[in-house]
Amino acid sequence: MILREAKVKDEQAVIELCHQIWPETDHLPSYWSRFLTDPATLSRVIEVEGQVVAVSFLEFKGNTAWWHGLRVAPAYQRLGLATRLLGHLIEESRRLGFSRLRFGASCDSKPMHHMAARQGFLTLSRHRYVCAGPLTGPDEVQPSVHSLEESDLDQIEGFLRASEGWRAGHRTACSVWVWEDVTRDFLRSLLEKGTIYACYDKGRIEGLALANQDREPDYTWLFIARIDGSAFGVEALGRHLRRLVSTLKAGADEECPVQGMVRDDPLIIAALLQAGYRFFPEEDMHLFELLL
Description:
Helix content: 25-40%
CATH class of the largest domain: Alpha Beta
Oligomer: single chain
Mean pLDDT: 89
Number of strands: 15
């Protein structure tokens, strides 16, 4: 059993490994090239008798190391490979001087929760998976919703700092299944794409949505990375995003070109339900954090 750096030649083996776990639905193959070539990423595989049986990555952002993409072949699960990978990546994060390590895991993944607890991780927050189809036809309510620009950056940061989730320490966003710390640079990257939206009422921001658009060969969608605000603001933003995607092509199985991962906050959940979104508890996630 060899734990080593991932290499370009491992791509096909990793894709086959992913398909053993989530056939045709795993996002990791689409991130493989970036994870492997980004200098701010550390990649590792475990090889047994020449066969890649596990893979995982660390992505370094600011003072945080984010753990992504743990995959262990079904035939090699429950043998301690995940624990070995995580232990190694914790030590690497410490050696490189990062202050904390974070990762997201399914709320139903009890083995991951137990492993995190054994390594000293604490639960940072719970997030709910949401999705909705396009919204067409007249809207009874016409709130003022706008795509924001670089000149709005200070206003965006001020709004986030005042939000309940921000004050509780959940300064995070899920950018198409890869978790991020919400930094000024991250906000700038979304502003350049025109995917930060604000709902205004009487000149004041009532809701803010950070989103990202992603594409696969036959599938395009808008992903809600974070949404905050009053019930009025969140509902208005939810409806606005559904209108934006009326021209996008969703997957053949589900007409849901708006998806997202939002904080498990009763106000946010109720507002998005009112805006016509659906929730799937089996897709919900916990965020874990280890201070290094």
